[in-house]
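Proteins fold reproducibly. Consider a sample protein:
=====
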Amino acid sequence: MADKQTHAQNEPAAVVESPEKVVSASDNGSFVDEKRRSDSDADSVLENSEGVTEHELATLRHVRDKMPWQAFSVAAVEFAERWTYYGTTNIFNNYIRAPLPVGSRDGSVPREFRDSGIAGALGLGQQKSFAIRTFNSFFVFVTPFIGAIIADTKWGRYKTICVFTIVVFLGHIILVASATPASIAQPQTALGLLVLAIFVMAVGAGSIKSNVSPMIAEQYQGKLRKEVLPSGETVIVSPNITVQSIYLYFYMAINFGSTGAISASFLARDNGYWVAYLVPTCIFAVIPIILYLCRNSYVKTPPRGSIILETFRVVGVCLSARWTWNPLALIREVRSEGFWEPAKPSSYKGGELPAKITWDEEFVGEVQRTFSACKVFLFFPIYWLCYSQIDGNLATVAAGMTLKGTPNDLIQNLNPISIIIMIPIFERGIYPFLRSRGINFTPIKRISAGFFVAGMAMVYAAVLQFYLYKTSPCDNDQPSACETEDRHPNPSPINVWVASGPYILVGMSEIFASITSLEYAFTKAPKRMKSVVMAFSQLQTALASALNFALVDVNREEKFQWLFASFGIISSVFAGIFYWNFRELDQAEVQLNLIGTGERAGFVGEREDESSQKAA
């Protein structure tokens, strides 16, 4: 989209300079001339807007535009895909960790023991369960680069999503096969099929993920404009606020899909794991139908050249020119002002360009400015480390509490439910209220708030775990494994719903941090680099999973209290560091949203064709 330069509607001071800011003490009688120039700038029409001046942008109230129905259909695709993802992965913990209940062949709990019984199958324990689930999380957030490269070079986003939908469907079929009674009777066979299913589904889901997020926002093609409301008020219809709202509702669709895990918990407990995995597989079959019916209505992005590969080549040329094995010196070189010069065609004067230079000057500028803006994502592994605790470890915490018929892995569905409830409150109430009061709750501030709230969720979890150790009938720091002599659960008297606090707090933090990261990735990316930036932002979750692999030894129930407390402190501290480090990006918000929004004569790859023609 070419209209993201208005992303900083909350920051009028960054757009219009006051006369006081441009007049120095030595100007003497030049105040009038400087003020006239400032007024002239304020009356200039913004590029790619429909007649909106900088003064109007700074003084009129901003509202969102109508959202296209095509965006809602993409959200419906994401809803079905997330239902199938969370409807399977949310019950992985019990499936892998817990043994078969007494008298069960498929993982279900016999009716007479369902009040406190826990579904299970492979009985591999907490650490192996954590390792396999972390592998799944790591791989599903590495593979977005596969889908982004294929979409950019071969198929475009729509076809890429369609093809990898089939891949995910095959993975679901393998997953169902892994959980049949015949497979569970041979745990090594079941485990092998499970890992294969995770691999296949991760390739498909990751490749879809990097394309569906930008595709939903691309369905909106409106421009910055003025509009008179029925009340007579003139307002600015802002593409930025519209994109923000699209991503809020997109995230709501994700979390509506996440609630599919509610049925999965009961299906696994009452009917076994093969049934729990079969239902999401059937729901996933809806996705190809939606994509086919809407095929002629979508705004489709055609393949535009090997953007990701070209980006890596630009970085490679610059690094090779400044390379040193001294890491501190290398960092200084990377941050130096002339780091990007070796990749610019203009730096090769009086001779032929090297064959490896297949891009133009503007592309290097886009890479440079995009990397500069997207440094914010490098902090996100700390945030996703906190999030990962609600993805399994807190379900283990809940397994040691009084259930009263509630499956222990059901409680984690409070996270998407709380998000579904809070998103309309923020989108229709809190954010408009802040804008009307002139409060600039910009992306950097929102992400900082998300880090802090996630830290508070971990502090809550640490305190809960302390009291769980204290009240468990078993004195072994493993409340989830506490059993009576006849092998039935013997939980702490603390009710499982007390564990709702971290899930709700993390949900609020996702509205601040995770949703804003999607919005930030889309609005800060040039038109032809959106897949690059989106894939890079999602890579941070994979990096968090890699860090989690290093923490396998401390992901034991007896160490949960200190694990949660450490994450809580680190995330809260990083909230302050993040804002301090990137506070200047708030002031440069308008300029960052102008990156790559202008019309281009061509895309990457056209220079190569021109060079070939010249050679001929």
